Amino acid sequence: MRTENGALAFRSSGSACVDFFFEMVPRVPDILIERLLEGAWAENPQTAQKLIFHVGAVKEGKQDRRNFYFCMDWLRRHHFETFLANLQHSVHLVCWKTALGLLSAAVEGVAPLLEREDIDRYKRRREEISDHHLNVRRPRCRQRAVSRRQQKETLSAAAYKAVVEQRRQAAAASNRAAAATAREARQVLAQEREGGVRQLEQRDGQFVRFKEKVAELFADQLQRDKEAMESGNRVAGLCAKWAPSFKNAHDKRTQIQEAIVRKLYPEERFRLAHGGASDAEFLSLMRDRFRKEYLSPLRAYSRVPEVFMGTNRWAELPYSRVPSKCMTLRESVFRKHDGERFEAFLEQVKRGDKKVAAGALLPHEIIKPFVKNTFGFVENGDEDREADTTLRELQWERLVRDVKEGGQLGSCIPVSDVSGSMYGEPLLVCVALGLLASRATSGIWREFVCTFSNQPSLVRVRSEGQSLSEQCASLQEINWGMDTDLNAVFRLLLQVAQKHSIGPEEMAKKILVFSDMEFNQAGGGRTNFEEAEKDFEAAGYRLPQIVFWNLRSSSGAKPVVATQKGAALVSGFSKNLMKSFLEGNLEEFTPFSLMMKALSRECFSDLRVVD
């Protein structure tokens, strides 16, 4: 097949599992995910199982929870026993919230869950509200203003005051009626949801087992956490934070809290103490005990930030316990309610006395405001507030430090595709990963990023003495265009090496190509990889190992096959994939071997296939 720009490529790598690994990126169509899943499972169920969890894993995977939900729901529908046997790993590899989300998908379908995980959901909602305000509310308010002005001019003061009072009473009555209608609608919805769950439990044995498994996971972990708390030991994990409170969002959809309460307070042990109570009264009493004995004390003991925020105890908020995404989203709130302590915390982080969380953030989420300002584009409905430079700088440095602690990339040069097809989120990710990789390399190519479209540019991104904003701005000198000429990048690297008399031993050992893989035609009936091999050999150099890092769901073209030595195929927005090709960690560098190395992490070793 050919890419969108005419280059020779492969429709498949020759391995369905490698195809899944390479094409699984955010915003990939669900129908394609299902096809990739079916192919990978048919080829090797054990590897496919690991690939599914790798999609969602926060520390060792792609951190793509939306696509992880879709894959797990597919697994539940097609291989239920395997799904149930491995559900416990999802709460540790991804988040405790995932078990509740998947349970709600079993009740109401996966579409609402995916909609809630859509990163554009709030942008679309803001657009809807804005459109409604511009098209409906604003004209109506103008008409009312004209009418009221006319009334004020024509009526006496007493008469106008009476009209205003009448209007106030009418508005209050209307609000009371609307509130009563909304309350009634909520009650009806709650009854329908509860009835739907009860009916599902009566007719679907698999759902009953699934719900019991989720309740068992929470009950067992909460008991262990309570024992640790009572012994004065540290409570690991966030089970208490995500354990459903009565009638919270997940409990409304699945009635899961009742199942957890019955696990912790079985009737045969606790019924005698409340012998005269009806079942509903007994359940109500046990729910109250659950809140007092588990949820509230464990959340307080674990210093869950939401406990302090929800009770306006800002002066006690432990900022070092605030998750990275919460820190970014709520920064303005912290400054408003506790500005002095928040600034003091940032100063302590600068000095190295404390740490700021950054692990759950994707690189492009940190630099997004700077890249948007540099390249001058705004996504639809994007109304991000101006980012605080200090917080972003500290989060970025923490991210860089975390990557370096995993090992050096060696002599490596990142190549960032800035062609027209990358416009939007893929461009943000491309620039972010390029900057991050440039900081994690060593040798003479350290702090260099090669950008390409029509004409490639080799850009020096200095980390010393330059802010993150300035590092992003240093990429302004690049040449933009609609083409994606990859081989021009290889020729530029050879020209630079020859101009500065760089010997074969100093040539970059790896080239990380961050792109959507829609390259220009190489010429001579060869693929881009084959053309690069020819050019490097002619110049007296050995072709560096090339990592093709896919950032966009497009034609599905593969630049190499799964067994191609000296190349690798990866994808996604997370920095975690860099761990797979650290210097000296692979005996044979091929797309298949790198995928298997990424899946060989200890956290995936306990996954098993049952059916």
UniProtKB/TrEMBL annotation:
Q: List, alphabetically, the InterPro entries matched.
A: DUF2828, DUF7788, UCP015417_vWA, vWFA_dom_sf
Residue span(s) of domain DUF7788: 411-585
> What's a Pfam family this protein contains?
DUF7788
Q: What are the residue boundaries of the DUF2828 domain, all occurrences included?
A: 3-409
- Kindly provide the name given to this protein in its UniProt entry: TROVE domain-containing protein
Record organism: Chromera velia CCMP2878
Q: What is the lineage of its organism?
A: Eukaryota, Sar, Alveolata, Colpodellida, Chromeraceae
